[in-house]
Structures are given as structure tokens and as C-alpha cells.
Amino acid sequence: RIRNAFSLYVSGDVVQQMISHPEKLRLGGERREISVMFSDLSGFTEFSEKLDPDNVALVVNTYLNAMTQVIMRNGGTVDKFIGDAVMAFWGAPVDDVQHARHCMQAALEMQQAMESLQPRFAELGAEGLSLRIGLNSGTAIVGNMGSDQRFDYTALGDTVNLASRLEGANKAYCTPILAAGAIEQEVRGIVP
Prior knowledge:
This protein is of the alpha+beta class.
């Protein structure tokens, strides 16, 4: 059951760790030190209004597939897709003492992946799409949240909120990645 539940959210290595150490998986919410990422395609709304629905779906699925691969390769948990936005976090459900480093590494690799996607985007009529990413590290509540009929494994709290706001602030600063000081301190001298 654990493998089926989490194989859609985290890498196979993380799922295997959870199976080997089921005591690390608690239902409900728990306080965890994590790193959080929000990403969004800049200019996507404009393109989606011009493209036919089939091409919009192709652009979104091409993008989300590539970004999910990067996140999972770096040990992240894909929390949710919100249109063309992605929320992901590191450090849960399995502990990761280098969650900030892995989060930042994924952000850098996602920007590289966007470069390689540009020819495909151009073919689909979405030339010039760019990616904005916000990152933060800190304490959050992580677990199954929702209702009796429907719930998600997610993270909540100020750490999450700030990561989301940093993603949006990229627009004002014309930057591709904004990271809070908490994450920058953890990766200084390790990640370029």
C-alpha cells in the first residue's frame, strides 16, 4: 500500500526507504524541517489564450513531465500541480538532512531542463516560455490534510507560504530563482 500511495509523488528510492522503515511514515500531520519549492511558467497564460487546447495540454504535460523527473531525481516530493505551477518539498516523508541542497539543485536543473525544452515549445507555438522558482527552508506541518472523502499528502505553514511568495516576486525582480536566506545559508559554498 505504501508503494502504491507514494510512487506517484516521490522517487523509487524514497519509496523503498519508506517500505524498509515504515515507522517513519505517520498518518496525520507532524512538524518537520523541510525545503519547499514553487515554480510557475512565466507568460503561460498569454500563450494559453492563443493556442488551441490540444497544444496547451501538450505544452503543460511536456513541461510537468520534465520538471517532475528533475524533482524526483533529486529526492523531492511532488505535492501538487496547480495549472502550470508545481509545488514540491524535500525532507518528508523521509528525512533528508540535505533537503535545502537537494531543493536548490533541483531548481538549477529545472532551469537547465527549460532550456532544452525550448525547441519543443517553439514547435507547439509557445516559444520563449520561462520558469520562475521560489525556495524556502524551515518548519512546516506535513501529512495527510483534507476531508474524510478526499485528502492530500502536503505541507502547510509559513515556510510554505514564503516559498510561494518568492516564486511570485521573481516577476518584479526579473529573476529566475529567488531563495530565502534560510535556504541560501544551507547551500552557500556547496551549490553554485
